[in-house]
Amino acid sequence: MCEQAVNAIIENYRGKPEALIHALTEIQHELNWLPREVLAEVAAALGVPLAQAIQIASFYKVFSLTPKGRHELHVCTGMTCHLRGGDKLLAKVEAVTGLKPGETDAAGRFTLERGSCLGSCSIGPELIVDGKHHGRMTPEQVEAVLDQYS
Amino acid sequence: MPRFNTVAEFEDYRAALLAARDPARPCIAVCAGAACDGLDSAAVAQAFEAEIARHNLAGQLDLRVTGCHGFCEKGPNVIAGPEDICYFEVTPADVPEIIRATLAGEVYAAKIYRDPQTGEKAARMSEVPYYKHQMRLLIGDNPRLDPLKIDDALAIGGYAALVKALTTMTPDQVLAEVKQANLRGRGGGGFPAGAKWETTKNAPEKTKYVIANGHEGESAAFMDRAMLTGNPHKVIEGLIIGAYAIGAHQGFIYTRHDVPRLVEHVKTALAQAREYGLLGQNILGTGFDFEIELHFDVGIFVSGESSALMRSIEGNAPEPRPKYIRTSVSGIWDKPSNLNNVETWANVPQIIARGAEWFASIGSDKSKGTKLVSLSGHIVNSGIVEVPMGTTLRTLIFAIGGGVRDGKALKAVHFGGAMGGSLPVDRIDARLDFDEMSALGAPIGAGGLLVMNEDTDMVDIARYLMDFLVKESCGKCVPCREGMFQMLKILTNIAEGRGRKFDLERLAELTEVTSLGSLCALGKTSAAPVKSMLQYFHAEYAARIEAGSQTP
Amino acid sequence: MSEVTLTINDREVTAEAAMSVLEAARQAGIPIPTLCHHDRLEAYGGCRLCIVEVESRGKINHVVSCTYPVEQGLAVRTRTETVDRIRRVLVEELMAHAPDSPELKALAEEYGADRNRFGKEPIFCVMCGLCVRYCAEIKGEHAVGFIENGPRREISFIPERAAEVCWDCQECFTVCPTSYAQAAYLLAKGLAFPDGGRS
Question: Are residues C42 and C64 located together in one domain of the fold?
Answer without folding.
Answer: yes
